[in-house]
Amino acid sequence: MRESFLEFVTDPSKKPLPRWIAVSVQRMNKDSGDLLFRGASGLLVVSSDPANPAVTTPREDVTLACANFELLANASGIATCWCGYLGLVEQEVPGLVEHLVGVPAGHPFAAMLFGVSGIRYPRGVARDGAARIVYC
Asked: What SS3 state is found at 7?
């Protein structure tokens, strides 16, 4: 995915990249940081067809689908991260998401990165005997 992204955004036939994207691309090329994919092992992109008469809230639908995936993934021990940066890049480099995953231009989408977490959080809540439930 990373290589396909770099190939698409650095295509010389496209307009010059805005500085904030160009810096990200330079860092990815130097292997000094991946601001877009963050080293995630997977990328989930959910899209909706706004022309479908059965779909009344396409943007909300894709957001809720990603939120449900996030809950399922976290319950399964998989780390997730919303990838709103991909939407910002798509605004500047039209056709990127279609090239990467086949989502047609103009269709709302939401993206989420997932994989093994690079951070281990200590358990912050003591649950052993802390609550007492009384049934009446």
From this structure: helix
